Amino acid sequence: MPMLLIDRGNTRLKWQLWDQGLPLKTGVALQEEPLVHVFKDLNSDDVSNIYVSSVVGHVFEQELKDWAAQSGFSVPVFVCSVESICGVTNGYDKPRQLGVDRWLAMIAAFKQYSGLLCVVDSGTALTIDFISSEGQHLGGFIVPGQKLMEQSLLANTHKISVTESLESSVFGTNTTQAVSLGTWGVLGAFINHKVSEVNVAFAEPVKVILTGGAVEPLVSLLQVDHCYQKDLVLKGLALVVGEKE
Description:
Elements: E1 3-8, E2 12-19, E3 22-30, H1 35-38, E4 50-54, H2 58-71, E5 77-78, E6 84-85, E7 88-89, H3 100-112, E8 116-122, E9 125-131, E10 137-144, H4 146-155, H5 175-202, E11 206-211, H6 216-219, E12 226-228, H7 232-244
């Protein structure tokens, strides 16, 4: 029977219904959307178990448990980061402190690619994690995503405002362009710099895997070998669940 996999990030909730190693259905919702609406097309008789990756804390956990109980679904299982699973070893001194979304994305990347890897997840925050060819998590970085940087700039300056419209340009010839090109440029330069550092330190090429909901503007800024993988967290969640069952 299919299982329901849920990835709850800071901004969005993504879900997939998996059966025999493949996703059958998928959905995306904003964080404020009621769960009864998010999962309105699912029937409890068609779902065996619910597995969850969440970075938002206990309020959502209780909301999901309440929805499951009221709708006749099984009790959701919240996955957390551990010391080692699926061939990947956690690089944190306290493994559970590593964000579970980062952990699962690394597991999925390691399953699909070989060599020295760099997983970049671009969303509310931008995270970068490096994994050795043997599956050792080497460590990583967390910086504000483009929207957070933009909001911080606007909240702490006067006479600066931006619109949603942005045309591609080398130079910012209006405030919207100046802010957007500047913030995205900072993120692209940071990724390029860190990948270059690791490349030199290990004398080995680094494969960059991009994922997350705010990836597209980064692509043209990267000067390193890279590829895009959609729903990397959910793929990692499926692998972890398969390892445990």
